[in-house]
Amino acid sequence: MGADRVIDYHSQNYWEVLAPKSVDVVYDCVGQSGTGDHAFEILKEKGHFVSLLLTSLPSASARLKRWDIHTRVPTCVGACAHYDRMDKISEFVALGKVTVHIDKTYSLAEIRNAFNASIGGHTTGKVALAVNTESPVMV
Questions:
Q1: Which residues partner with 28 through β-bridges?
Q2: How do residues 7-26 score in pLDDT, each as one tens digit?
Q3: Contact yes or no for 35/11 (Cβ under 8 A)
Q4: Rounded distance, CA 23 to CA 19, Å?
Q5: What residue numbers bound the domain in which 57 lies?
Q6: Residue 7's closest CA among 26, 34, 21?
Q7: pLDDT, average across residues 57-63
C-alpha cells in the first residue's frame, strides 16, 4: 500500500524500531496511554502529533523536553464541528480521490460482532454494517 516500512505491532514497538527524530507526523487513532510520550521521541524537530483521543496525549515532562512538537487532538462535538467539511470530503470521494478499505461487512443482526471487531484493534480497514431495510429488526 506504499508504506516505506511495515512494523508488526504484535512483535515490535514502533518507538523501538524507528530512529529518534526520524518521523514528520504521528497520527494516533487508538488513543492508548503513553502513545504521546513514545511519539515525541521519534518525531523530527517541529514534528506533528495528532490523536483522536485525549488519553494518548504526551505527559508534561515529554512536552517540556520537546516544546517544538505541534500537538493536536481535534475532539469536537456540537457547535465547534465544521459540517461544511463533510461536503468537501464527499466531493473527494465522488472524484475517486478518497477511497476507504472495508475490512469486513456485517449484517445488522451481527452488530455485536461488528462492534467487537472494531474495538478489538486488529482490523485492516473499516468495519461496515449492511442495513437491510426490508426485514424487521428486533430490539
A1: 51
A2: 888 899 999 999 999 999 99
A3: no
A4: 8
A5: 14-79
A6: 26
A7: 94
